Amino acid sequence: MIEKSKNTDRSTEVVPRPGGRSARIQAAVIQAVEELKQNQDPSELTVPAIADRAGVTPSTIYRRWGTLNELLAEVAARNMRPDAPPQDTGDWRNDLAVWLHEFVEEMSSEPGRVMLREVLGGERPDNAGQCSSFTRQQLDTILARVNNDEERPPATDDLLDQVIAPVMYRILFTNAPPERDYTQKLIDKALGVNST
User: Are 61 and 50 contacting, i.e. CB atoms less than 8 angstroms apart?
Assistant: First the structure.
């Protein structure tokens, strides 16, 4: 019996390249979503319209994202990435207050609320997790500025639980954005400052 020789020449294997065709298609689809959202209400977006704008077939979008909601969730999560590190005022406590005020302003704006709804509308939790990691990175950056050994800043998880969670609850489930006094009280409590 003759045994077939096994081809061990790896040069004939097809290996996906970073930045290859798949990445270009993904970029085109995401750009199409962004462009269409500028010209029409997001609730009117359809997979066929996005596919046409991106120059791909609808099946390409369904294969990659599964549903329109999942595509919108991924685009929204990408847009939640901060443009810059938190402002450095020379006092980490002040940096935290400034950053939180800007965060509340952005997230409670109509575009911010739309992004949040889209992120949460996806079926996969990794988009929301990505947004959480962006917030965590910003808080970590601020807390890394503590340069006095005697100061004991709160843990990032404590800030997420005691400050960010109640702020996000108000943004998502009430009509009015959290006021600055409210957010400052949350910070003071998390920092152990007596605000009476």
Answer: yes
Tell me the whole-structure pTM to 2 decimals: 0.74
Cβ atoms of 38 and 84 closer than 8 Å: no
pLDDT per residue as tens digits for the range 46-84: 999 999 999 999 999 999 998 998 898 888 888 888 889
CB 191 within 8 Å of CB 154: yes
Q: Would you identify the CATH topology of the domain 19-66? A: Arc Repressor Mutant, subunit A (1.10.10)
Contact between residue 190 and residue 154 where contact means Cβ atoms under 8 Å apart: yes
Q: Where exactly does CATH 1.10.10 map onto the chain?
A: 19-66
Under CATH, which number does the domain 92-191 receive?
Answer: 1.10.357.10
Q: Torsion-angle region of residue 89: left (phi > 0), alpha (psi -120 to 50) or beta?
A: alpha
| Stretch(es) of the chain classified as CATH 1.10.357.10 | 92-191
Per-residue pLDDT tens for 122-134? Answer: 888 888 888 899 9
Quickly state the pLDDT bin for 147 (edges 50, 70, 90).
confident
